[in-house]
Every structure is written in structure tokens, then in C-alpha cells.
Design brief:
The protein contains 11 helices and 14 strands. By secondary structure, it is an alpha/beta fold. It has 2 domains: about 220 residues, Isopropylmalate Dehydrogenase; about 140 residues, Isopropylmalate Dehydrogenase. Strands 2-1-3-12-11-4-5-10-8-9 form a 10-stranded mixed β-sheet, sandwiched between helices. Helix 6 links the parallel strand 8 and strand 9.
């Protein structure tokens, strides 16, 4: 009997629809190969939704997401909508409300540099000769971005701005469990990044992560201050496996990881929320890059981040681990065989420069 799932597809703006089309073709192949079915519901979001309905997150889109096992998201935004009121701009009016509505507290962002693409990284080649594969687990709904009090006022006639970094133990416990679980499926190594030599919130963070580590005795836990972690990611990225950290630190470190990986067009992400009794998460999966309106419609965008986001969805929300691994292996083989979209092409011998659809075809041929 075929396993049945349901997802909502939100392609969005810019290059979103064209790279999403590639991911859907990969999903079709995965269904046929691995014996499951995915009911898809496609809806407008972001600028496309504003143009059609006047709002970046129409009620029917939100309802469809509520009825799904997961959301496969493209990208939103562009110059066309930058001058709208902030609350109805594509990012603030769609992406952030979706994260808040579904309590997507855990952001999983891989930083992967395949051996065939080490030349695209700004890090010295001798430091990354074999490539690297790091997973950043970032707490997404707490910390200084959401802490209260927050705002501006005057003291003795001088403007003062205030942001509050606050974490509850329960918030740290749940993100730590996600990170330890992820580490169990990899090298069983977890680095917790904090600033416990300065911040009270980081002291609680470290104490709580150590406490949760007792539930995962097979995982080797270590700790590092965030400033040192930022340096070591450049100095020895291959020594990292899984790192877990709070919202602000994770925002910064995951962008650093993306930069040293060589191209945002290669990097997926997952934002996870509630976990079911079956161990699977409701989540939203999207490329780490943006809508790239400057190349939209030209058929040259790199679809790999969207395809790998699909693989993460299959693994974490649908439990189709074999299909996820097959997609990731097909992507790695395609890159090893020299296929390159413009963002990762260098003109070296052995490279074949291709557009969006040709890259998808190459992945399908190796699936």
C-alpha cells in the first residue's frame, strides 16, 4: 500500500516558480521510485499574492498550509514591492507570519561544500581540500529578536534604544533535543555555541544543553564561545559537524557558513515546528538564497537549493529517508560529473555550463 502525504507548495516570486518546477519534477521521480504519493496544493504567497489579492499571505494560502504535513517554500520579494507598507511587504507579511503561526522554532541550515566545488569557496584550498559538511541548528523564535522590553525612549534628553535577550529553559531544551537528534544521524558530535563568559542567558543555555546531553549519551558534546566559533569556521570548517546556538548567533554563523560554502544557490534550509508522535516535524523548507529578481525568467537560476530543500522535507516531515538520501546523492554525482549553473561555473576543464532545466535533467539522470 502506497504511503500517502500532503504538502503545500508556495513558489513565490522571482526565480521561485522556475526552481520550484524543477523540485516538483524530482518529487515525481521520487514517488515513482520509492512507492509513496504526495498530494500537492499550490498557492500564491509574497509579491505574487499581493498582485492577485492585495495581501502577501491570503487566508486560503494559510488554510492550505494548516492542512498539510509540510510546506515547500520558494522565495519572496523584489523591488516591485519594496515601497509598500512594512506589514504587507512580501517578507514581513508572509515569511515571518508563517514562522510565527506554526511555531517554527528550529532552523536547520546545512553548510556544504562538495569536494568538486572547493574552488568556489573564499577559504584557502588547503583548508578545505576534501570539502566540508556542517549543520547549523538555530533557535528561531526566541532571543533578542523577540525579547521584551524592546524599543526606544529618551533619558535626560538622549535617545536610548533597548533590546532584551531572553530565553526560557523550555525553549533551550526543545532546540537542544532537535540538535542532539540531528547529531545522532551524523557523526554524533555536537558543538553548542554561546557567550556564557558574558551573558546570563548563555549561562542558562550551556547548563540546559549539558542537562539534555544526558538523554543522548552517544553524542560527544563540546562548547565554544561565539566569537571563537566564527574564527574557527574560517580556520578549520572541516572539523565541525553539528552546531546549535541561539537566534542572533545562529543568524550570523549560518550566513558565514553559506559564504564559505561558495554559493547560496547550493544551500537548503528547514524551519521545524511541532513534532508528532511518529517523530516527524511540521516544517517549512526553502532555499537559503533570495528571489534573485535580476535573473528571474531567464532559465539560468541554480535549482539545487530548492531540490535539496525538498530532500530535507522528505526526511524530516514525511519520513521518506531513502528518497531524501537518493536525491542528495544524485545532486552530489551531478556536481562531481561537472555540471554547473552560472553561479558555480568557473570555465575549468571538465565543466558543462547548463541552465535551470538542464541541471534538473542531469540530476534526474543520476537519481
Amino acid at each position: 500500500m502506497s504511503r500517502k502525504h500532503r504538502i503545500t507548495i508556495l513558489a513565490g516570486d522571482g526565480i521561485g516558480p522556475e526552481v520550484m518546477n524543477g523540485a516538483i519534477r524530482i518529487l515525481d521521480a521520487a514517488e515513482a521510485k520509492f512507492g509513496f504519493t504526495v498530494e500537492r496544493s499550490e498557492h500564491l504567497v509574497g509579491g505574487a499574492a499581493i498582485d492577485a489579492t492585495g495581501h502577501p499571505l491570503p487566508p486560503e494560502t494559510l488554510t492550505a498550509c494548516e492542512q498539510a504535513d509540510a510546506i515547500l517554500f520558494g522565495s519572496v520579494g523584489g523591488p516591485k514591492w519594496e515601497n509598500l507598507p512594512p506589514e504587507i511587504q512580501p517578507e514581513r507579511g508572509a515569511l515571518l507570519p508563517l514562522r510565527k503561526h506554526f511555531g517554527l522554532f528550529a532552523n536547520l541550515r546545512p553548510g556544504v561544500c562538495l569536494p568538486a566545488l572547493t574552488h568556489a569557496s573564499p577559504v584557502k584550498q588547503e583548508l578545505i581540500a576534501d570539502g566540508f559538511d556542517v549543520l547549523c541548528v538555530r533557535e528561531l523564535t526566541g532571543g533578542i529578536y523577540f525579547g521584551s522590553p524592546k524599543g526606544r525612549h529618551e533619558e535626560n534628553g538622549e535617545p536610548v534604544a533597548l533590546d532584551t535577550m531572553i530565553y526560557k529553559k523550555s525553549e533551550i531544551e526543545r532546540i537542544a533535543r532537535v540538535a542532539f537528534t540531528a547529531a545522532m544521524s551524523r557523526k554524533k558530535q555536537l558543538l553548542s555555541v554561546d557567550k556564557s563568559n558574558v551573558l546570563a542567558s548563555s549561562v542558562l543555555w550551556r547548563e540546559t544543553v549539558i542537562e539534555i546531553s544526558r538523554e543522548f549519551p552517544e553524542v560527544q558534546l563540546s562548547h565554544m564561545y561565539v566569537d571563537n566559533a566564527a574564527m574557527q569556521l574560517i580556520r578549520r570548517p572541516g572539523s565541525f559537524d553539528v552546531l546549535v546556538t541561539e537566534n542572533l548567533f545562529g543568524d550570523i554563523l549560518s550566513d558565514e557558513m553559506a559564504m564559505i560554502s561558495g554559493s547560496l544557490g547550493m544551500l537548503p534550509s528547514a524551519s521545524l515546528g511541532r513534532q508528532g508522535d511518529n517523530g516527524l516535524y511540521f516544517g517549512m523548507y526553502e532555499p537559503s538564497g533570495g528571489s534573485a529578481p535580476d535573473i528571474a525568467g531567464q532559465g539560468i537560476a541554480n535549482p539545487i537549493a530548492q531540490v535539496l530543500s525538498l530532500a530535507m522535507l522528505l526526511r524530516f516531515s514525511l519520513g521518506e529517508n531513502a528518497a531524501a538520501e537518493a536525491i542528495e546523492n544524485a545532486v552530489a554525482k551531478t556536481i562531481a560529473d561537472g555540471f554547473r549553473t552560472g553561479d558555480i561555473a568557473t570555465g575549468r576543464d571538465g565543466e558543462t555550463k547548463v541552465g535551470t532545466q538542464a541541471m534538473v535533467e542531469a540530476i534526474l539522470a543520476r537519481f
